């Protein structure tokens, strides 16, 4: 892409369809769409409107709490896998921060993560993240994983 060209619009894939089951024509199309998006763009935007706005607001609230923690605390989140813990404080990407939770659908793993970030506890984070968010998105996560 030349420096004067605008990037193409990222593909938007809808994973909220009721008929998205392995083996169906809609499933095969979704798999093809994922493959094409990754080949062409390296990523895609997901349309998944099954999360109530109230839950989204709660999730963003607890994520703000997480990223407002001191850098020293966030740096404790380390894993063997590259880019799967705290990623931040990068000179060439000064505004970038990300936080991965290894095995995020496991109750024990997310409780351990919560205890690491908040040694005195943070039931609100754990409840909103694990119980509310993961309960609603685990089916979505599995669906996207199976299309890859």
| End-to-end CA span | 26 Å
Extract low-pLDDT stretches: none
Helix count from the secondary structure assignment: 5
Look at the helices and sheets and give the structural class. Answer: mainly alpha
Q: What is the C-alpha radius of gyration, as a whole number of Å?
A: 18 Å
The backbone outline, from C-alpha atoms, is globular
Q: Give the topology string: H per helix, E per strand.
A: EHEHHEEHH
Beta fraction: 5-15%
Query: What helical percentage do the residues reach?
Result: 40-55%
Tell me the number of structural domains: 2
Average pLDDT metric: 83
Q: Strands across the major sheet, in which order?
A: 1-2
Largest sheet: 2 strands, parallel
Number of E strands: 4
Could you explain how this protein is built, in words?
Strands 1-2 form a two-stranded parallel ribbon. A two-stranded antiparallel ribbon has the order 3-4. It is mostly helical. Strand 1 (12-14), helix 1 (25-40) and strand 2 form a beta-alpha-beta unit. It has five helices and four strands. Helix 2 crosses helix 5 and helix 4 packs across helix 5. The protein folds into two domains: 12-47, no CATH class; 53-147, no CATH class.
Give a nutshell description of this structure:
With 148 residues, the chain is mostly helical.
Produce the secondary structure layout.
Elements: E1 12-14, H1 25-40, E2 45-47, H2 53-67, H3 71-74, E3 86-87, E4 98-99, H4 107-117, H5 123-147
Parallel strand pairs: 1-2
Antiparallel strand pairs: 3-4
Helix pairs in contact: 2-5, 4-5
